[in-house]
Task: inverse folding
């Protein structure tokens, strides 16, 4: 039996993506969380980029970069999450390649140093939301990117749509309701058990703590933000 070890920072969305794929395939794995400010030597020895995620296989091979990990798991372990049709598979891969652009736009407000920078970052969100809304219109009726069948695209976007929801609760952004297909996709992904490495309320609290520690402009609103459970 193959042993899988996924090395993580607790609130890293790229790790979450890899964990989602492991859970969707019902693969038993060990989750090992490390401190991003004190990365142990054993981790530095197996992570060429010094980043997470790293998927350690049988304490022999280390895979890094979340997209490479997801593709490897999909090629080697059933059920296949990519579409069987070559054209549909290429479309899916193209949209997973868009994830870094989407992620940067969605989370940019968390890194703003001033109100002006925050407003500028927030103004960029509709562009990426509109592109996903149009893509979802072409792909089918939902609830997932390819319709009824869950895919690697869903696993890739779930962490960042979740973070948008968190940021919207810290300080109101108000974009998502303008994009009904994207809103429905977000709801379906957040309702999916595989999305969650921790209980949702506990994870949101971790994310807010990370925002506070970062000390950016948004941090001043964390303590007064409405919690998900309230």
Result:
């Amino acid at each position: 039996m193959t042993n899988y070890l996924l090395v993580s920072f607790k609130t890293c969305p790229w790790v979450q993506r890899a964990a989602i794929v492991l859970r969707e395939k019902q693969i038993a794995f060990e989750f090992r969380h490390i401190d991003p400010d004190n990365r142990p030597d054993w981790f530095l020895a197996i992570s060429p980029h010094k980043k997470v995620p790293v998927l350690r296989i049988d304490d022999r091979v280390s895979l890094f970069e979340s997209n490479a990990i997801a593709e490897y798991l999909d090629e080697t372990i059933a059920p296949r999450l990519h579409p069987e049709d070559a054209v549909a598979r290429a479309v899916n891969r193209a949209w997973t390649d868009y994830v870094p652009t989407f992620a940067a736009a969605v989370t940019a407000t968390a890194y703003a140093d001033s109100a002006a920078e925050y407003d500028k970052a927030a103004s960029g969100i509709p562009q990426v939301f509109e592109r996903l809304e149009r893509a979802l219109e072409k792909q089918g009726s939902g609830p997932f990117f390819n319709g009824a069948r869950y895919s690697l695209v869903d696993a890739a976007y779930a962490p960042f749509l979740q973070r948008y929801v968190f940021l919207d609760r810290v300080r109101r952004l108000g974009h998502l309701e303008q994009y009904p297909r994207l809103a429905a996709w977000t709801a379906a992904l957040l309702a999916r058990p595989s999305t969650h490495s921790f209980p949702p309320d506990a994870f949101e609290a971790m994310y807010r703590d990370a925002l506070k520690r970062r000390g950016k402009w948004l941090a001043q609103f964390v303590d007064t933000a409405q919690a998900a459970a309230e």
Q: What stands out?
A: Strands lie at 4-8, 30-33, 54-57, 61-64. The first helix runs from residue 13 to 24. The domain at 4-76 is CATH 3.40.30.10 (Glutaredoxin). The chain has a mean pLDDT of 95.
